[in-house]
């Protein structure tokens, strides 16, 4: 499935978070679409946008949280592109079944977003307008992916973020353990070795072997459990 | 207290609702500020806007509901005008104590906005980003004023809307019965008679008298009740 990342950020070049995400992109099946760069005058090409949507199964809205919502150009995009007859209406939605994923960057810690916290409301609550949009367009709404205080992240946290972001782009962050293992194996087999030394390649091969061995061991345990129950 | 109505509507002239509201405005203490008319190119004069805010005690955001939120220019206004140091931050907010009122026009019935309803979420829920903004700016957030399906309203419903809207603009819709009576008396005494015939003026005077008599009667009843309790 192809992923369309609709990025809305008025000052993308100055955002460390967005640059990091851009550099983390998989090599294929992903379209990066930065609205402020494509439409500097704010006039949106509705036909082109609707064609883009039709060509992708997974739609990502990626933006920094300004005043508890997206920057204005993403809202302008919604109002212009999600027309009656295309996104909703008597004859159904042409977006039916597509996946909608929000990737939201915040400057304050995620724990501030809760009743009694500094921001009082949770992020899923504040994103209701997007959830309602997904429902209206008969799209499948995914759990938020929140990136908080990127600038304060350690190198290790950033590496974890990179992996999670790549999983988010393919909708694999919320799979079963088995699906996650398959994702890791795939990533390690195809992309992981491109720029690696011979030694590191060997390490990767060992890691894949270890993953497979663990999975076989788990399968055996499950099998034994099932037999005991019967 | 002066009221600033910040209207965001990309096609104001074609909206029956907005025209009706514009024609219902009180003669004084109200500033009508239509963002799309003032800033057709979308570039907002931050200093002018902040000065406007400082000169008014009650701020109204008035807009049609597009994709469960405001049109994009109001969001652009928030992002541009509510700067750190002015609206929030270490040195407090210059908007502290001001009232924030949302006047939202919808094309579908208000009852559709609830769990299990067509739109799944309530309007107060969908307006959380504005409520969170009010909290951050230390403003007092008022209950939503929703205008649903204006085009289907009867003449009588519109008259009721006119009265409620004028009460909303002065923050009097949510007062006690006594405060509401005082509001009616004031309106009838000052504004109501400007364009009336002599006969109608007499009617208005009788109405004011009746209101006062009713109030005296109610006060007497309350007094008797209190005595009986003692």
Automatic annotation (TrEMBL), chains A, B:
<keyword id="KW-0560">Oxidoreductase</keyword>
<dbReference type="InterPro" id="IPR003680">
    <property type="entry name" value="Flavodoxin_fold"/>
</dbReference>
<dbReference type="InterPro" id="IPR046980">
    <property type="entry name" value="KefG/KefF"/>
</dbReference>
<dbReference type="InterPro" id="IPR029039">
    <property type="entry name" value="Flavoprotein-like_sf"/>
</dbReference>
<dbReference type="Pfam" id="PF02525">
    <property type="entry name" value="Flavodoxin_2"/>
</dbReference>
<feature type="domain" description="Flavodoxin-like fold">
    <location>
        <begin position="1"/>
        <end position="167"/>
    </location>
</feature>
<dbReference type="GO" id="GO:0009055">
    <property type="term" value="F:electron transfer activity"/>
</dbReference>
<dbReference type="GO" id="GO:0003955">
    <property type="term" value="F:NAD(P)H dehydrogenase (quinone) activity"/>
</dbReference>
<protein>
    <submittedName>
        <fullName>Flavodoxin family protein</fullName>
    </submittedName>
</protein>
<dbReference type="GO" id="GO:0010181">
    <property type="term" value="F:FMN binding"/>
</dbReference>
């Amino acid at each position: 499935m192809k992923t369309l990342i609709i990025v809305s950020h008025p000052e993308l070049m100055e955002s460390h978070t967005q640059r990091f995400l851009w550099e983390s992109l998989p090599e294929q099946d992903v379209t990066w679409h930065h609205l402020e760069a494509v439409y500097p005058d704010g006039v949106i090409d509705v036909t082109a946008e609707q064609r883009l949507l039709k060509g992708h199964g997974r739609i990502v809205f990626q933006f920094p949280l300004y005043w508890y919502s997206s920057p204005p150009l993403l809202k302008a995009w919604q109002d212009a592109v999600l027309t009656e007859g295309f996104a909703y209406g008597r004859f159904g939605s042409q977006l039916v079944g597509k996946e909608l994923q929000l990737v939201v960057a915040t400057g304050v810690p995620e724990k501030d977003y809760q009743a009694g916290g500094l921001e009082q409301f949770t992020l899923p609550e504040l994103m209701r307008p997007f959830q309602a949009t997904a429902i209206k367009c008969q799209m499948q709404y995914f759990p938020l992916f929140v990136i908080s205080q990127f600038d304060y992240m350690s190198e290790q946290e950033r590496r974890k973020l990179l992996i999670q972001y790549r999983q988010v782009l393919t909708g694999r962050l919320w799979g079963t353990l088995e699906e996650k293992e398959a994702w890791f194996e795939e990533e390690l087999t195809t992309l992981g070795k491109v720029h690696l030394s011979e030694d590191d390649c060997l390490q990767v091969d060992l890691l894949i072997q270890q993953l497979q061995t663990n999975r076989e061991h788990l399968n055996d345990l499950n099998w034994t459990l099932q037999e005991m129950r019967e």
